[in-house]
Amino acid sequence: MLELHKVTKVFNPSTPNEVRAIEGVDLTLEEGAFVVIIGTNGSGKSTLLNAVAGTFLVDTGTISMDGIDITRWPEHRRAGLMGRVFQNPFTGTSPNLTIAENLVLAARRGLPRGLGWALDRKTKDELRTRVRQLSLGLEDRLDNAIGSLSGGQRQALTLLMATWLKPRLLLLDEHTAALDPKSAEQVISLTDVIVTRDRLTTLMVTHSMHQAANLGGQLIMMHRGRIIQEFKGAEKRRTRVDDLLARFEEVRRADQLDVTAAEMLERAYV
Amino acid sequence: MSLLIGALTIGFILSLLALGVFISFRIFSFPDITADGSSTLGAAMAAALIVKGVNPLAATAAGFVAGFVAGSVTGVLAAKCKINGLLAGILVMTGLYSVNLHIMGRSNVPLLSSTTLSTYAQSVGTTILGGPKPLNILGWDVTVIDASTLLLVFLAIALVGAGLYWFFQTNLGTAMRATGDNAQMIRALGVSDENMIILGLAVSNGLIALAGALLAQYEGFADVQMGIGMVVWGLASVIIGEALVGTRQLGLTICGAVMGSVLFRLLVAIALRLGLNPNDLKLITAVFVFVALVLPNLVHKFRSRKAGAAYA
């Protein structure tokens, strides 16, 4: 359904600040898969998600969805296929617009926007019904500016907005990392409910080993711009937080060996 | 009295400028200097066509279209070519100076002997009132042409204001407001923020050029220098409007920009009457805008320092 083939991205090429953010990543998502990506800081996991979303264009490789090559599509065009929730709760909503206006913008994601009245009575009733399902008590505050809400409330609304029209792909970029533990818990369980209910194909980046172990049917571990391990099916179900920590510890130790030293040892002993 | 009516009329005409500046500065936070060129462009376009005998309504519309095009050029430079917004505006404004001279063929085009919208206003007024006899309003004599011009200008502004209010609540207009508020979010919802900026600046400069076209017909001439300082005029009006009505509601903000423009013109008229040197006008306006931009921050700092002192 989503296919990445040998995707590479280098930031600030040929400068002292050159960063090889992703190096030749291959990844395939099946229809309805819930894939979780974890990795060390700077491993390229968020970069990978942004490459799919089209925040920047990749240097080499191809990205295709449903067999259509979207590698050169600009971000706003890809948005017709994807719903996104960002790490920063302020990124996904427009603070000076009301809750209702934000939602109605999301209700036309990827559709042409003409000169029709955005918020008629019927639309507003529909908004109210779906906001009530969040049980955050926001259905009576639809005319309040969204900037007056807490981070957790804004993130829950962003999630609702991203999935308002069923997206072909849902992208979650550490969407609970900036929240307090209680809000994070709420947003995660809401995520689980929506993804399961709508059978959404989902790509989620997370820092939390706990989330990585408990959510999704497929787990990808990234390090230095590459996918170093993939857990699928029964293997993923068996995976516990401790297993993930142990694997990261291995990676960390391997890193302590200098690359040239590693090559030398390899030649001598393998 | 005719001084007061004149100030009101110019205030209403320039409220189109204020609305244009409101779109670029407040909705997009885009400091669009194009206004200085596009207001003259509207005047030049309308004047050149009127002198050629074109219907003044069509000539005014052509002024709007010219401004619309100029604004979209600035938009393309800034959004697509990634030129700094301020510089994009300066480039277009500078280029427009030559364009305006070409359109007019010289630096000043008088309209006093041509049929303009003012002529229309006069004939409409005379027909309704049954003759060119001065009206008596609250004990003052007001000439028919002054009264009918003011009335027609007011109606035109009310129409444009209502149109903008409607536009910003459509699906397209809401997306435009969101673009200025959070561009990343609107891209993630499938809207090209670049196209929104281009369209927004086009509408903004269209309105500003319309103000120029009406002003030229009201004052009876178009001049290549008439646009200098227009951005600051518009900004001053917007700031006064926000002080009057706040920024909470869209409808109020639009009314505020119009009210700010009218109030500003009245203040200027009074100051000139009291003996202010007209040469100082632009300096005073610039200082006013500077103070209005800096004052809220200073007040905030002062208050928080006082609050801090109270805790200490």
Describe the structure.
The complex is a heterodimer of chains A (270) and B (312). By secondary structure, chain A is an alpha/beta fold. Chain A has a domain at 2-96 and 151-239: P-loop containing nucleotide triphosphate hydrolases (Rossmann fold). Chain A is built from 10 helices and 10 strands. Chain A has helices at 45-53, 75-78, 99-106, 121-132, 151-162, 181-198, 209-214, 233-238, 241-256, 259-269, and strands at residues 2-11, 19-29, 34-39, 60-65, 68-69, 82-85, 169-173, 202-205, 218-223, 226-232. In chain A, the strands form 2 sheets. Chain A has a 6-stranded mixed sheet. Chain A has a 4-stranded antiparallel sheet with strand order 2-1-4-5, with helices on one face. The radius of gyration of chain A is 20 Å and the shape is globular. The mean pLDDT of chain A is 89. Chain B is mainly α. In chain B, strand 2 and strand 3 (140-142) form a beta hairpin. Chain B has 2 domains: 2-276, ABC transporter involved in vitamin B12 uptake, BtuC; 280-312. In chain B, the strands form 2 sheets. In chain B, strands 1-4 form a two-stranded antiparallel ribbon. Chain B has helices at 2-27, 34-51, 56-80, 85-104, 117-129, 144-167, 171-181, 183-188, 193-219, 230-245, 250-273, 281-311; strands at 108-110, 135-137, 140-142, 221-223. Chain B is globular. The N and C termini of chain B lie far apart (57 Å). The A-B interface holds A 53, 74-77, 79-80, 84, 86, 90-97, 101-102, 104-106, 108-111, 113-119, 161-162 and B 167, 169-175, 177-178, 181-182, 184-193.
Estimated radius of gyration of chain B: 20 Å
Q: Report the sheet with the most strands of chain B, covering strand number, pairing sense and barrel closure.
A: 2 strands, antiparallel
Helix-residue proportion of chain B = over 70%
* Shape field of chain B: globular
Largest interface: which pair? A-B, 35 and 22 residues
Beta-strand level of the residues of chain A, as a percent range? 15-25%
